[in-house]
Amino acid sequence: MSGTISNDYVSMINKTGSGYNIPVIVDAIVDAAITPVKDIVTAQKNKVDAAVTGMAALKSSMLLSQTTINKMSGSSDYNLSSVDTKTVTLSVNDRSKLASFSKDITDVTIAKPMIFTVKSWSSPTQAYQQAFIDITINGSAIPRLDTNGTNATTLTQRLNAITGLKAELIKADTTYTMVVTSDLGSNFTMAATAGSNKMNTETSPLHSLSTKVQSGANATFKLDGATITRSTNTITDLIDGVTINLVANNSATPTKISSSLSSTKIQETVEGLITELNAYKADLNALGFIDPNGDENGDLANSGQIRNAKRRLTNLMSTPISGYGDANIHFVNFGIKTAKDGSYVFDQLTFNRTFKNSPEKFDALTQDKAYASDPNVFVYSTPNSALPQGKYSFRQSDINLLFESNSLTTLTRSGPVSGTYTFQDSSNYAGFLFSSNEASPADFDLYIGRSAKTKLFNFFNEGLGSSGIHNKTVALYKGQSDTLSARLDKIDLREARLQQIYTKQFSEMEKVVNASTSSQEYVTQLVDGWNKS
Length: 533
Prior knowledge:
The protein has five domains: 8-57 and 470-532; 78-109 and 219-261, no CATH class; 113-214; 263-364, no CATH class; 369-449. It is built from nine helices and 29 strands. The model is unreliable at 1-15, 194-198 and 200-209 (pLDDT under 50). It is of the alpha+beta class. The strands form eight sheets. Strands 1-18-3-14-15 form a five-stranded antiparallel sheet.
């Protein structure tokens, strides 16, 4: 022969019997039968498990975007200004009602409480030896206060427990002083003996309350010339969406207060929204990435879930926002445009145009609206109300709610409660109602506006909800993973059975061969002969 034949393979042959290494042969036969099938199922399971991981990453991205977008409040969209903050300050109490204004406040007198002091208590435990105190607040008597067995401390506690009064005991040098204070704008009297405004104490038989620090007084001022009186310095019912805080008296100079829409703050909101939308889209693209070489695919490559998520987002961004008047508002009106690569970009020119011509449209960024053309009708609608966004009409003749001139539902009227009637259809449109002081208000239009913020929040909520498409898809993938795991378990069982069957068969063959001459010697001699020839 032209070459030497190696005897290395003889190491795989037994020294006795047939000479064959039965475990190696059995493993080879079983692997040939099992490995191709097992590899296919394992690859399928790995792909499904990667999809489950990808769905978790997608959920995390949705939650992050939803949380970030939900933080957009629009509370800084307006600049509130007071030229004299030592007299008046302003704050926002309801952004949805806020609008631009400019007003003058003059002749400010702040509200004050009535304050009495009761001095010369020798100690906190000094006894008070009167059995009762008669008290009036703003001219109205309250139930007689039982003071039998009290001392300076316990009497103070009982006074402090009365609604409309505050009492505290203060150490003043070597004695103690009880300070009794009313609510702002309120006055009171206290008498321990009929017809007197005195409190009797042990140290002074007629411990007078005549140490009157100040009388209670209401706040008064003029707003654009109109006289205003309130019992508080925190006024919330004069300008929609704004709290006026009176700080100090000022009768000398007027204080101008104003509110103006800030293009800078609104642009920051728009650009922040664009950043978050692009971050979500980037997550979708990464999860659905298809590597041309097939090595670095995203966890949800070729997944219908990614295609569906992108389609839903595209539909949302192209659907107009309605309910903010008679005309629809589009995301592009905010200056949000779609680039060629599918990302969102800020269009300064469009933003500036909207801010100049229709600044009220920016309310639709963060502020939900529910209002009627009749100012005497109050409309209430929750962000997830069953009544969709849009313009509706109320028809007096049959108490019907109409959409685009078509009857939508007949409302149920209830009341009056405190002079107010309520109209609603709680069965079909939960979360919506309107009220009126009239049992049969004349025809009017009403508007339900869901802001971009609310639309996006609901968009993510629909996907993340317990019955949403995300959870359904995860359940499907997990079901597939469990099925493939069960198949792998069956394959492992079949592998074990085949090992057992072939081992038994070769063992039986070994017994037969053992009855004859060992083959190892024969094969070795044969190879040696070939090598010598």
